[in-house]
């Protein structure tokens, strides 16, 4: 017998979108992230997030791939329960783990004008959800944000960071969050599984400031998550702590809140190679300058792919003699984590990885399915950005550990932000009690 087991609530939002599809016609698309009732009692779980598309609801779920489940979609329309049959399709980026992300398409029955709530159950459960106890009043997830929006979003740039676990890298977190703000980012969404108390303090601080939204990401309570991206890299039933459903959650959660969205990690920064605004005294919004440039060169509504340049944290070298390192706060040594300004040499680009570990900035309203590197499904696909326009600075463990320091290549682009970055980082660290009160600016 096929049963969907416990279905877990992850998100409570609905979004509506205008998507330009094939030709010039505009279609109305609504998106719901939702969860449904429980239909079973074991510890296994399916996470359900939902998207409305035309006359259908798209449920983004985590499913056991080998099971073929017939779904019942329970739609609450004007306080009445309607039922339709859901059809599932698994995202291809499951990396051979037993569980994967899936879309369950639920037709909206005739007679249903507005869906206020929605839930999904296994069709194998005859009574699941349709009995009296459940129909008294609507249940499932509330449908929100049903207004179509194509401009004037509250945020210009949202960065989706997935997933944070056992995180202690406080200094790099603060540096990156300050860098992102200098680039023009207004919102950073952190899918958090676990972190150190100092990290939590920093996240609380930025949440209070309005920059960060923390989404608790506790799939591990329901499913055995892997800490690797392949089954051979770590035991578990789903890829890397459920990073892929998290990215898709972020995509739909912010689709109508943000003009653009960047999908990358906290140790990665996409930096334009020229930026007039970097000269400005107070604010430097280089991504605001970059995106119109990319749209002009590669076309609008694309996803833009940025080349990954690894700056190994095992190598600390001063800049070449012509450059000077700005004065930094020596108290940073006592803050846990990596100092990105100390690692300005990157590994050479090699053909084996050149086109694989990129990250993207995209118009989220032109996307159906996101993945770790790029998109699975979108309206217009992706364009590779010339490294002389912008590239990604990835400060992390070496990818090519056998290189000697003199094989690394200097790139001091980050230093042009340092006169803004250093005092901003000091302020945050000081306000969070991570620097002595009397330390220099
Ligand atoms: C069917 O659904 C009902 C209502 O949610 C639940 O109580 C019951 O345990 C389910 N049965 C099975 C076999 O999953
Ligand atoms: C978004 O960008 C515009 C310029 O394109 C700017 O005027 C506005 O202040 C920015 N909004 C935010 C929230 O930063
Ligand atoms: C998770 O996977 C490990 C390794 O396969 C296994 O030992 C453990 O029992 C699993 N836990 C659950 C809750 O399935
Ligand atoms: C780092 O912390 C230790 C122990 O608290 C302290 O003695 C030392 O002065 C600190 N160093 C800096 C540079 O802040």
TrEMBL record:
Keywords: Glycosyltransferase, Membrane, Transferase, Transmembrane, Transmembrane helix. Signal peptide: none annotated. The keyword Transmembrane applies. Its main location: membrane. It is found in: Membrane. Its EC number is 2.4.1.-. It comes from the Eukaryota. GO terms for molecular function: glycosyltransferase activity. GO terms for cellular component: cytoplasm; membrane. It is a single-pass membrane protein. The keyword Phosphoprotein does not apply. The chain crosses the membrane at residues 7-27. Belongs to the glycosyltransferase 92 family. This is Glycosyltransferase family 92 protein. It comes from Lates calcarifer. The lineage of its organism: Eukaryota, Metazoa, Chordata, Craniata, Vertebrata.
């Amino acid at each position: 017998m096929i049963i969907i087991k416990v279905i877990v609530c992850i998100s409570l939002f609905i979004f509506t979108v205008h998507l330009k599809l094939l030709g010039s016609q505009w279609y109305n698309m609504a998106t719901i992230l939702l969860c449904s009732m429980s239909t079973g009692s074991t510890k296994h779980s399916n996470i359900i997030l939902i998207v409305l598309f035309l006359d259908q609801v798209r449920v983004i779920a985590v499913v056991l791939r080998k099971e073929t489940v017939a779904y019942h979609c329970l739609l609450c329309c004007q306080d009445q329960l309607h039922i339709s049959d859901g059809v599932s399709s698994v995202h291809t980026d499951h990396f051979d783990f037993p569980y994967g992300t899936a879309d369950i398409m639920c037709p909206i029955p005739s007679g249903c004008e507005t869906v206020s709530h929605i839930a999904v159950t296994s069709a194998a459960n005859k009574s699941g959800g349709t009995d009296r106890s459940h129909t008294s009043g609507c249940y499932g997830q509330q449908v929100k944000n049903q207004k179509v929006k194509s401009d004037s979003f509250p945020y210009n740039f949202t960065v989706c960071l997935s997933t944070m676990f056992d995180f202690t890298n406080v200094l790099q977190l603060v540096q990156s969050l300050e860098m992102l703000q200098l680039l023009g980012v207004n919102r950073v969404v952190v899918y958090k599984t676990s972190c150190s108390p100092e990290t939590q303090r920093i996240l609380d601080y930025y949440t209070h400031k309005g920059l960060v939204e923390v989404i608790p990401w506790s799939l591990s309570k329901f499913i055995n998550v892997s800490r690797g991206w392949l089954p051979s890299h770590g035991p578990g039933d789903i890829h890397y702590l459920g990073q892929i459903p998290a990215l898709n959650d972020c995509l739909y959660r912010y689709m109508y809140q943000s003009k653009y969205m960047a999908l990358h990690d906290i140790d990665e920064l996409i930096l334009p190679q020229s930026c007039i605004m970097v000269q400005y005294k107070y604010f430097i919004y280089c991504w605001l300058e970059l995106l119109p440039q990319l749209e002009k060169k590669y076309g609008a509504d694309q996803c833009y792919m940025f080349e990954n340049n690894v700056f190994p944290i095992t190598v600390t070298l001063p800049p070449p003699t012509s450059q000077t390192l700005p004065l930094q706060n020596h108290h940073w040594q006592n803050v846990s984590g990596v100092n990105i300004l100390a690692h300005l040499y990157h590994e050479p680009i090699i053909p084996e990885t050149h086109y694989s570990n990129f990250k993207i900035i995209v118009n989220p309203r032109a996307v159906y399915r996101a993945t770790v590197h790029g998109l699975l499904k979108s309206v217009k696909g992706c364009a590779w950005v010339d490294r002389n326009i912008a590239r990604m600075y990835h400060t992390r463990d070496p990818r090519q550990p056998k290189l000697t320091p003199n094989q690394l290549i200097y790139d001091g682009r980050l230093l042009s932000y340092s006169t803004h970055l250093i005092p901003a980082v000091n302020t945050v660290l000081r306000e969070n009690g991570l620097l002595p009160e009397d330390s220099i600016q």
